[in-house]
Amino acid sequence: MTALLNFRSTPLPTADYARGCYIYDTQGKSYLDGSGGAMTVSLGHAVPEVIEAIQAQSERLCFSYRTQFANTPALELAEELVSLAPVGISHAFFVNSGSEASELAIRSSIQYWREREQPDKTLILGRDISYHGMTMGALSLSGHTARRGDYANLLHPLAVGPSLSRVAEGPEATDVEADRRAWSQAIESIGAEKVAALIIEPIVGAAGGALTPPSGYMRMLREVCDVYGILFIADEVITGMGRTGRWFACDHDGVTPDVITVAKGLTSGYTPLGAVLYSDTLVEAMSKGSRSAPFGHTFSGNPLSAATALAVVRYLKSHDVLDNVSARGNQLREGLQQIQARHPGLMGNVRGRGLLLGFDLFDPVRGGTPTPSLNANTVFADTCQAEGLIIYPAGIAPANNAAIISPPLTIGDADIAVLLQRLDASLQRFSLLFS
Ligand code: PLP
Prior knowledge:
Largest sheet: 7 strands, mixed
Strand order of the largest sheet: 4-10-9-8-7-5-6
Number of helices: 13
Distance between the termini: 34 Å
Number of strands: 14
Strand content: 5-15%
Mean pLDDT: 93
Bound molecules: pyridoxal-5'-phosphate
Structural class: alpha/beta
Low-confidence stretches: none
Radius of gyration: 21 Å
Shape: globular
């Protein structure tokens, strides 16, 4: 057992170095990074432009404290993000992770209503198939049962609206108008005067395996929030920064949330960084500052991480990476559908958008979801890793049966072919568990 705490029964391989879409372990084995780690690596590994930016910034300024100095990379990054975000988003604040971004989104929503003299609006409405982070506030908003685990009695109550359909037919199976009624009922039964905000992942990641709503769903949520006078928070920690083929998933519906959270792909994982993006209305109200501001961590706006994110954003723009997401996303989807046809009963329909795709795993012998004791998602991810492919195990108990495929946004034809070939071999091997 190593000193590095890890609760897995078998030791993990040790990652040694990485190039492009591949990670190499200390034994020299290569793994195609088919999920960009945890839907994080957007540019691929060891991109010279990012490494050079990190090096240049580290020689100039690694740390300055946010209440004492502004720093140039943070100032420039905020400008970049605001210019890419939906119209109406006017400010950015930096944190260190997606969880911290969720926490700040909660605190600032409550702060907003306090400044508007409505201090009873403190509840945040979420949905039960969801994940917004491991810190206690973020976990309170998350319906990820396994991660809520033993802390359920310590968390704030999760007020839930309807979850996206997990039905194999995909996004079309979610009835937008039925969900509009369900969200409205959820708000009315609590009382809109107590609800500060509604938070959703535009595409549900870890808890669902790329559960995707039909188009118009974000617009419907925006309208519901406007009708009831509550804030709309889009958790774009996974979907933001180009993952779905637009800068933000909300762009597909032409919708501006009041608050957008981003992390993961923001720095492509080269350094830790999260951000909360705000609409002008919020900033204006919070700027009254009649109560202590909810902002700030020691490392907020860290110049090194900001410089990393700037290099990532500039690369995404200058190499037209978002166009690649749409083209390669279609190619990957078609390839996955062909693989599904080769594994009837084992692999469910492919869902998702851009290069954020997912599917469910089924028991091909007995039918339906695999027995919970199998822990299908983890076992399948381990099987893929043995075949040299990294995928992300998703879904929540009891079924735990989803997988996410989310390779770097820069992936090319040849690497998609390798990904599909290794996935096919992994499914073949995984199917033997059921015979
Ligand atoms: N929000 C979403 C949608 C996520 O998927 C995650 C992490 O997977 C988080 C928030 C939390 O981010 P982090 O792990 O960086 O704290």
